[in-house]
């Protein structure tokens, strides 16, 4: 189980990313269409003034049940070992376990 503080930090990052999403996209479009280098630097400075945690690359997917940050399956939003346990317990419809 992940620490509660780490999970709350991820939620805070998600909120910041949603809040600044349009601002970041519009400034990136302005950078690509700016004719001179000095204008690009001004727009880039505006982009840099936004919080670091508003960048989408700072987000990290976590397991829905345990909060584990690694080995997550996007379709189920679960980590690998929790997914395996749920499949073996027949809690996920449509998922089949492999047997050799």
Largest sheet: 2 strands, antiparallel
Structural class: mainly alpha
Shape: elongated
Number of domains: 2
* Helical stretch tally: 3
Helical fraction equals: 40-55%
What integer is the average pLDDT? Answer: 89
How many beta-strand segments? Answer: 2
| Binned strand content | under 5%
Rg (CA only): 20 Å
User: Strand order of the main beta sheet, please?
Assistant: 1-2
Q: What is the first-to-last residue Cα distance?
A: 31 Å
GO molecular function, one term: structural constituent of ribosome
Subunit structure: Part of the 30S ribosomal subunit.
Subcellular location: Plastid, Chloroplast
Keywords: Chloroplast, Plastid, Ribonucleoprotein, Ribosomal protein, RNA-binding, rRNA-binding
Quick take:
Binds 16S rRNA, required for the assembly of 30S particles. It is found in: Plastid, Chloroplast. By secondary structure, the chain is mostly helical.
Q: Which short descriptors sum up this protein?
A:
100 residues, mainly alpha, 30s Ribosomal Protein S14, Chain N, 2 domains, two-stranded antiparallel ribbon, 2 strands, elongated
What does this structure look like?
This protein has 100 residues and is mostly helical. It has 2 domains: 60 residues; 40 residues, Ribosomal Protein S14/S29 (30s Ribosomal Protein S14, Chain N), CATH 4.10.830.10. It is 51% helix and 4% strand. It has 3 helices and 2 strands. It has a two-stranded antiparallel ribbon with strand order 1-2. Its main location: plastid.
């Amino acid at each position: 189980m992940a620490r509660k503080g780490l999970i709350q930090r991820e939620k805070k990052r998600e909120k910041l990313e949603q809040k600044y999403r349009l601002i970041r996209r519009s400034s990136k479009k302005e950078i690509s269409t700016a004719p001179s280098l000095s204008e690009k630097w001004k727009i880039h400075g505006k982009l840099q003034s936004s919080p670091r945690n508003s960048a989408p690359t700072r987000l990290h997917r976590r397991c829905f049940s345990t909060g584990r940050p690694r080995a997550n399956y996007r379709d189920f939003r679960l980590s690998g070992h929790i997914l395996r346990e749920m499949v073996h317990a027949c809690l996920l419809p449509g998922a089949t376990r492999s047997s050799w």
